Amino acid sequence: LTAERCRQGLLxxxxxxxxxxxxxxxxxxxxxxxxxxxVRLFSTVPIIVLSARTEENDKVSALDxxxxxxxTKPFGTAELLARVRAALRASRTRVAPSNLFTVDDLVIDYxxxxxxxxxxxxxxxxxxxxxxxxxxxxxxxxxTYATIIRSVWGSxxxxxxxxxxxxxxxxxxxLGCRPGDSRYVINxxxxxxxxxxx
Length: 198
Description:
Helix content is 40%, strand content 19%. It is of the alpha+beta class. Helix 1 runs parallel beside helix 2 and helix 5 packs across helix 7. The longest helix has 16 residues, at 77-92.
């Protein structure tokens, strides 16, 4: 289903309740961000932004409004399809009956607040666990620095992003990741983090 205008897209969305939305921000009648805002009032369906806007603040704004992912043009079809599959998987497995999160050999037990890699326990601080658990509960979605900081610490200050980056470096090290390794947590540079889902 396709729509050339935001209002038309909202009408189609409410009529057909699609499994996923691929959204351009540059729509002729209003900004695509308004589409995200209105859909998020009543739906958690995955929204992937596909836009020519490459500025960091555009990405952050769309993700903070509730987009699950942001891809800039030009893009590879294979990457787009992979992100679509990841978003659909995440939306279908958001609630885990066992209350466990697993990806590769990483396991998070929410009930016990325990993390293990390859069966060996990983000793995280309370803050480190909260960050990792938050990311795992939004699989396939990029969480902006501001979203993570407000969720974990409650407010932001000038040193908040640096504090988050230090904690994230400690988490990666404890999970056995080398610099540049994106096995578990992926850094969307200048925007935020997302957890790998396969």
